[in-house]
Amino acid sequence: MIALNLKILPQSSFGLAGYWGLQEPVTIPFYNYESNSSNYFGIKDWGIALQYGAEFSGSVNSSLYLLAMAKKLGNHSLSARFTPGYQKEFLFATGESIIINDTTTQSLEANYNYKELFGLGYSYRFDEQFNAGLAVRFFSQDFNQQVVKPVFGDTLYLVRETIDEKVNFWNVDLGFDYILNKNFQFRVSSINLINIKDDLTIEEFQGFEMDQKRGALLMASYMPADFFNFHLLYETSNSFQLSTTGSTSGFIYGLTAFHDYFQDPYIAGLIPAVGYRTNLFEILLSGVKYFSERNTNASFSKFYEEGINNIINNRYSFDKIVLSLALNISSTPEKKVELIDVEIVRDIYPTFYDKYIEQPFAFGKVVNISGETVNVIPSVKIEGITDEKIQSPPQTLEPGDTATVPFYLIIPDKYVIDKATLSYADFYVTTSSTEPDAQLQKAALINSLNSWDGNVANLRYFIMRDIDFSMNYAKSVLSNNKSVLDTLPSAISVFYKSKILFNNFVKSLVYASDPRATAEYVQFPKQTIELKGGDCDDLSVAYSSLLESVGIQTALVDYKEDGEIRHVNVLFNTKLIPTQAKFITTNDSKYFIRKNEQGNDEIWIPIETTSLTDFDEAWNVGVEKFNREAVNDLGLAAGKVEIIDVY
Amino acid sequence: MKTFLVLLFFVPSLIAQEFKAINIRGDVKYRAGTSEVWAEVKEGTALHLDDFISTGEKSSVQIKESGNIISIGELSAVSVASIKKMSTDELLLALAMEDMINAPKTNSKNNSSSTAVYGDKEGQGKNLTVKTDDFGIRRLNGAMQLAKNGLKESSVVFAKETYRKYPNSKQFPSYRIFFADILYEKGLYEEALGEYLDIAKLDLSKEEKAKVESQTKSISKILLND
Question: Which residues in A377-402 are b (16+ Cβ under 10 Å) and which e?
Fold first, then answer.
């Protein structure tokens, strides 16, 4: 027998669902190793698929073509497929016959069965544009032939024997995908790059093995709109496929025309496909229609001469109808937004426990990568501060939009931290489910409890934090002076309470600058009283806290330019109206008139808390400074002096 | 440039000033700084910026400062700090400060005013009656003296402070019209209009009413033309 090299090739680019390019939204092509050697697919987590179909070869023969599954692990993509229906069996009369019992002639037969049994795919996505992978497939060839063998003995006689051999081989191909942008995508893959096969030992089967001629696939897609995408796939064997695919409102369609170098006519057939998909499943009905007459019979010699070039697509293949089903199972929800970056715009001062509810401490840049309008909920969790994620108000993002989202924070009011610590803030953006779509971690400096940002308005946090201590302290002092207070007219009660509290408060205090010689360290009232001293911030905070704790309105006066050093003292509301001023002083320059919420004038007096002699002296010193810098020099109007109400 | 201008405005007040009382006639007193006591002013008494000077009936005093002499007539009271030359820009700044102070406090946060006041016997306090004294009027007279001595801008500022500290002093139309006219004269039409409209609510004489209406019309015309 002459050993000819038959053109029985392993699968090249033909797929039963047609060619779909690199479209991520479509699940089905993931198992189509014939055109997807790079194992590129859009499944986010798990994918399971099957193809079941029927071939119209006179009768209708149905079979399960394949079962496949895929898994994505970060940038790694894995897939496997089992292909029981990828086989073609040829049964021939070899042309030889044997006469049995001188009367019966029996033809000898040959049976060749070509199968692709299973395949495995792996790929790695280097970035948004570049993906590379490989597909490994296992093929089996069963050769079986009846032959006549002479038996030499006393008499020569012939016997009919069956010889058979199984030849397996592995086929490895590589593929590379380049996604230039949403509109243009390219792929290059090998055909029969690596073959590892068993040796064929029986001479009769020589030349019937599947050919492993090397080649390449070149593919390009132009996708101007979701509904119209165009793909061209060219094989170096001079075959090609042209297809158009698209989707709208979940409906998908594909139409592939293929030119097969080994078949006639020039366009050998069409593969139309329609289907419907959701995020969970995909169903696709496709068909293969050949334009040439299908061969059901051929002689062994013709087969020997022409061969076939593809197991499921050759001149002996019949029209088919194929139902493809895929499930897109995800243990993690589909990512709809991406958190590009986060900028921390404010240092975190734990004492300002509710400040970051009004003023975000960080801003993140979020992009909607889905095709739908989404509500993004930003949230943050800071190690050591918050046990739960702190959510910020949701923000609506149109598809493709990028937006800046604020991150707000609530610090537990009992949170304690002795010294500044470098912590980590985890920023999340969440859309529909409870699991975040994206997260980003940034280092964040958490200042100590006594740290202050230098903004006088924020001293109110120090004033209010120890308010229980201040209340007990103030009540105790006022209780000891109950007899004096009881004799006073109610109108001047506030003034005298303030005076008594100050005189008691300053008795044992001395002025001391910050321990760290900076303006960023402020003591809480309890610390000031226990340590028996403090600087202007500490003393103003402590005195204001004592007054506020018994319902006396206070304000801090921020002298922004006092040489190089800023200064703070206290104003308090006597609740007297201007005509009652003489109850506390005959000097009308010793008080300041402010309107209350109702628009009524009330007398406020400035107290210099660092003047630790007595109330009258502190009042006088406070007045002199206030009149000079805030009033006469127009400091209030020029912004050099600011009155900041504690509440 | 803005900073530079602001600095220029404050130059006069930054320079140490010396005031001396001269040509004293009758009952002239001064109150030093935060003191509660009035003391007699004698010829050559040195006065400081935070002092106050007050004249009695048929009394007067002149205050000398760096060659300038300011005369204060009878029944007048002025703060020494107000004896200063101000520019119209400074006056505007001072008026802005007035507006700032007079704007009702708006605070959305919970007010810490207590509902129960420790030791107070609300409603049981001694009912003190407050008598309106004439110090507010003396201050307004003092403000007018400043204007008459050419310190018109500071006279308005001093008058405004007086209105705040002595609310009853706002009820005298003649003073109000006098200081509103200064605003008009200085071209501060919007500020003057506000004053005239407020004055119109007072009990005015026929002449005062005519004057206020005429000024209001005149300003309205000017503002419309702008």
Answer: bbbbbbeebbeebbebeebebeeeee
- A401 and A474 together in one domain: no
Between CA A533 and CA A313 the distance in angstroms is 94
**A115: in domain:** yes
> Region B203-216: what's the mean pLDDT?
94
Residue A419 belongs to what domain range? Answer: 337-446
- What's the ipTM? 0.81
Residue A14 falls inside a structural domain: no
Residues A116, A177, single domain; the answer is yes
The pLDDT assigned to A117 comes to 93
Put simply, whether A590 touches B (Cβ < 8 Å) is yes
**B121 shares contact with chain A (CB less than 8 Å):** yes
**Whole-number Å distance between alpha carbons of A211 and A515:** 87
Please tell me the total count of domains within chain A. Answer: 3
Instruction: Judge whether A493 lies within some domain.
Output: yes
Is A31 in contact with A68 (CB distance < 8 Å)? yes
**Residue to substitute from A358, A463, A589, A627, interface B, most B β-carbons within 10 A:** A589
Mean of pLDDT values over B188-214: 94
User: Is A316 in the same domain as A344?
Assistant: no
User: The domain that contains A625 carries what CATH number?
Assistant: 3.10.620
| Chain A from 510 to 529: CB within 8 A of any B CB | none
- CB contacts under 8 A, A 428-487 vs B, are 474-475, 478-479, 482, 485-486
Q: At A31, phi and psi to the nearest 5?
A: -95, 5
Q: State how beta strands A390-391 and A402-407 pair.
A: unpaired
| CA distance, residue B204 to nearest chain A CA (Å) | 24
Asked if B52 has any chain A CB less than 8 Å from its own CB, the reply is: yes
Contact A625/B at CB under 8 A: no
> Is A13 within a domain?
no
Q: What is the pLDDT of residue A498?
A: 95
Q: How far is A346 from chain B (nearest CA, A)?
A: 23
CB contact under 8 A, A583 and B128: yes
Q: Does one domain contain both A86 and A175?
A: yes
CA distance readout (Å), A635 to A560, B2, B7, B9, B186 = 9, 15, 12, 12, 23
